[in-house]
């Protein structure tokens, strides 16, 4: 059973896109998809989640199986591999999808899980793309995400217009699993850059420099980086602890994935992890809240 909301009618002939995950990042991504004219099909656990789509056209489904049966493409924007697995198996989503359907996993997880999922889905004629995104909620709201894709290029070509609705960059890394590998490397480098910024800020504070003036200088000069920009905007004393927790989880996934792939990343892990742990301190330094 479905419920159609009020709003403009999607373009005829466009892909029917199923979507699961209206969280901090998934909600603006879903909004972008329906704003681009695709027929958006939604399943949610809680009615309150639908507030993110207020005023936009979508079709709500009572079950995951109903959603899977009518979708040409299904996007999942969930936090962990275990969440993905629960939706696909316990929820019955994978069994309901028709041969030829493309399943896109936008969550960040293990490359090995992405590969095993693709193998399982292939037996039912379903193609899987692992396509984690970088840019956070601000990037999603601005429709400027970087989407990092692993999987068959032919499938990517088919869904590219959907991804373009919320992406500024779509990077195809190679076979299934490489999208996750690319995202994990991206995350680790961000945290390493955070550590670099933190070390410089601590040094500058010891020299009694005006940190606000220094931030303006660095943001205008060749030392500019996303880690630095985030401290001037997206990272605040209110959310830094939460972001630290998420980044530590990302590093857990990174290290497990790299170890499974036969890489010794102990030194890199320690440095990047310290960049995650120091984020709240850096936010306090920049805002002048450091005692």
Describe this structure in words.
The strands form two sheets. A seven-stranded mixed sheet has the order 1-4-3-2-5-6-7, with helices on both faces. Strands 8-9-10 form a three-stranded mixed sheet. Helix 8 crosses helix 11. The protein has helices spanning 26-35, 64-70, 81-90, 93-96, 111-122, 136-141, 153-164, 178-206, 211-220, 226-231, 240-260, 266-277, 279-287; strands at residues 2-4, 16-20, 39-43, 59-61, 73-76, 102-105, 127-130, 133-134, 145-150, 167-174. It is globular and about 65 Å long. The chain is built from 13 helices and ten strands. The chain is of the alpha/beta class and 291 residues long.
Key features?
single chain, 291 residues, alpha/beta, 7-stranded mixed beta sheet, 3-stranded mixed beta sheet, 13 helices, 51% helix
What fraction, in percent, of the residue positions are helical?
Answer: 40-55%
Kindly report the average pLDDT value: 94
Could you list the spans in which at least 5 consecutive residues all have pLDDT below 50?
6-11
Shape: globular
Radius of gyration of CA atoms, rounded to a whole number: 20 Å
Element order: H for helix, E for strand: EEHEEHEHHEHEEHEHEHHHHHH
**Structural class assignment:** alpha/beta
For the largest beta-sheet, the strand count, sense and barrel status come to: 7 strands, mixed
Q: Kindly, what is the distance between the CA atoms of the first and last residues, rounded to a whole number of angstroms? A: 58 Å
Enumerate how many helices there are, as a single number.
13
Q: Tell me how many strands there are.
A: 10
Strand order, sheet with most strands: 1-4-3-2-5-6-7
The fraction of residues in strands falls at 15-25%
């Amino acid at each position: 059973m479905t419920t159609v909301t009020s709003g403009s009618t999607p373009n005829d002939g466009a892909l029917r896109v199923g979507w699961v995950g209206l969280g901090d990042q998934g909600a603006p991504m879903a909004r972008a998809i329906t704003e681009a004219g695709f027929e958006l099909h939604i399943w949610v656990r809680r009615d309150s989640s639908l507030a993110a789509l207020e005023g936009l056209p979508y079709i709500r489904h009572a079950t995951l199986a109903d959603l899977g049966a009518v979708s040409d493409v299904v996007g999942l924007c969930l936090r962990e591999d275990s969440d993905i697995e629960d939706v696909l198996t316990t929820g019955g989503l994978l069994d309901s999808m028709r041969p030829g359907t493309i399943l896109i996993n936008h969550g960040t997880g293990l490359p090995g899980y992405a590969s095993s999922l693709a193998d399982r889905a292939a037996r039912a004629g379903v193609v899987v793309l692992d396509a984690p995104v970088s840019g956070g909620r601000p990037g999603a709201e601005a429709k400027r995400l970087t989407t990092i894709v692993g999987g068959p290029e032919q499938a990517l070509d088919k869904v590219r217009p959907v991804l373009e609705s919320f992406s500024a960059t779509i990077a195809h890394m190679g076979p299934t699993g490489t999208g996750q590998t690319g995202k994990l490397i991206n995350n680790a480098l961000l945290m390493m850059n955070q550590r670099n910024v933190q070390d410089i800020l601590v040094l500058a504070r010891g020299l009694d420099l005006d940190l606000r003036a220094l931030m303006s200088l660095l943001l205008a000069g060749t030392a500019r980086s996303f880690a630095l920009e985030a401290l001037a905007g997206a990272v605040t004393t209110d959310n830094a602890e939460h972001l630290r927790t998420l980044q530590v989880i990302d590093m857990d996934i990174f290290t497990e994935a790299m170890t499974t792939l036969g890489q010794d990343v102990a030194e890199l892990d320690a440095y990047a992890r310290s960049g995650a742990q120091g984020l709240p301190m850096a936010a306090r330094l920049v805002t002048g809240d450091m005692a």
